């Protein structure tokens, strides 16, 4: 259930139109939830009221209204047995979090909180997120007096991270090459990943649209090869302090940067870093811009999958 028609079209493409509704959560009633006979609620409320870059208006932000509405529904929905919520790191110190926990306690749910990242699950991508799992009936067999920063019992810990080369597509179109204007002005602030590395930055909905802090870029060169090229670029910059470099110097600099073969990760590669299955597809009409926005707003499937196991295991 979502108001984003593009997201819903992707969902329907993969799972069928019978399982998706385009509507505002705030119009959902207890009676409707009862008709659905749903026993599990999985949610990822808008993160903007809690992000570091935002105004952090918390429950005063209109985008928190849907969560407030859900918190009012939870005590009234008798069929609900399991709940999982995901949000940005920082949600754990919000008023919205307190409101949510109060709703769980009024409804006699047992609950546990986590701050986790996919690198703890053998996935070479950093994406710290807040999670809360809650259930009725038997309590969880691990302590609830803290926010867990690892899976209890060492689950999914101490594994070797996959290398980026394992998720990279072959014969990627030149359309994904970093444009010359970005190479010229912004390349030195980009997070550049090489095939043998086992890491990548958190991808956001602004990936490819903004350069800094929205996700990593990829080069097929080794770390040593690209380092050598960037040292030559820095040498040109050091030896040419003038604000207006000659056209010849600029061409030399750009020719060097072209040798790095720097490109953006494709939507499929980002989906792999988010642990989406290979058979997950976007409808043909979905643009790359829309794909990046959806993926940047999404969750890591591996992390959530492991939490659902933890939530439902007796």
From TrEMBL:
<dbReference type="GO" id="GO:0008168">
    <property type="term" value="F:methyltransferase activity"/>
</dbReference>
<dbReference type="InterPro" id="IPR031303">
    <property type="entry name" value="C5_meth_CS"/>
</dbReference>
<comment type="similarity">
    <text>Belongs to the class I-like SAM-binding methyltransferase superfamily. C5-methyltransferase family.</text>
</comment>
<protein>
    <recommendedName>
        <fullName>tRNA (cytosine(38)-C(5))-methyltransferase</fullName>
        <ecNumber>2.1.1.204</ecNumber>
    </recommendedName>
</protein>
<dbReference type="InterPro" id="IPR050750">
    <property type="entry name" value="C5-MTase"/>
</dbReference>
<dbReference type="InterPro" id="IPR001525">
    <property type="entry name" value="C5_MeTfrase"/>
</dbReference>
<keyword id="KW-0489">Methyltransferase</keyword>
<dbReference type="InterPro" id="IPR029063">
    <property type="entry name" value="SAM-dependent_MTases_sf"/>
</dbReference>
<dbReference type="Pfam" id="PF00145">
    <property type="entry name" value="DNA_methylase"/>
</dbReference>
<keyword id="KW-0808">Transferase</keyword>
<dbReference type="GO" id="GO:0005634">
    <property type="term" value="C:nucleus"/>
</dbReference>
<dbReference type="GO" id="GO:0032259">
    <property type="term" value="P:methylation"/>
</dbReference>
<keyword id="KW-0949">S-adenosyl-L-methionine</keyword>
<feature type="active site">
    <location>
        <position position="47"/>
    </location>
</feature>
């Amino acid at each position: 259930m979502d108001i984003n028609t593009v997201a819903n079209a992707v969902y329907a493409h993969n799972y069928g139109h019978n399982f998706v509704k385009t509507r505002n959560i705030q119009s959902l009633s207890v009676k409707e939830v009862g008709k659905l006979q749903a026993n599990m609620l999985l949610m990822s409320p808008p993160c903007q009221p809690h992000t570091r870059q935002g105004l952090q208006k918390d429950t005063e932000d209109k985008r928190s209204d849907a969560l407030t509405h859900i918190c009012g529904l939870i005590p009234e929905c008798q069929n609900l047995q399991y709940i999982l919520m995901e949000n940005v790191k920082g949600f754990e110190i919000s008023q919205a979090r307190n409101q949510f926990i109060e709703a769980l306690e009024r409804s006699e749910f047992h609950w546990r909180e986590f701050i986790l990242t996919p690198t703890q699950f053998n996935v070479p991508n950093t994406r710290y997120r807040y999670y809360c799992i809650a259930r009725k009936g038997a309590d969880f067999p691990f302590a609830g007096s803290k926010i867990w920063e690892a899976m209890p019992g060492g689950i999914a810990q101490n594994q070797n991270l996959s290398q980026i080369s394992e998720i990279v597509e072959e014969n990627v179109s030149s359309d994904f090459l970093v444009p010359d204007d970005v190479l010229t002005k912004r390349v030195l602030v980009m997070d550049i990943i090489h095939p043998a590395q086992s890491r990548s930055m958190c991808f956001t909905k602004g990936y490819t649209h903004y350069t800094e802090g929205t996700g990593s870029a990829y080069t097929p060169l080794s770390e040593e090869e690209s380092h050598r090229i960037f040292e030559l670029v820095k040498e040109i910059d050091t030896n040419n302090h003038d604000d207006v470099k000659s056209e010849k110097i600029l061409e030399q600099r750009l020719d060097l940067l072209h040798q790095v073969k720097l490109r953006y990760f494709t939507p499929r590669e980002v989906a792999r870093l988010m642990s989406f299955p290979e058979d997950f597809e976007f409808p043909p009409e979905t643009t790359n811009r829309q794909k990046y926005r959806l993926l940047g707003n999404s969750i890591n499937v591996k992390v959530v999958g492991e939490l659902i196991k933890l939530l439902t295991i007796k």
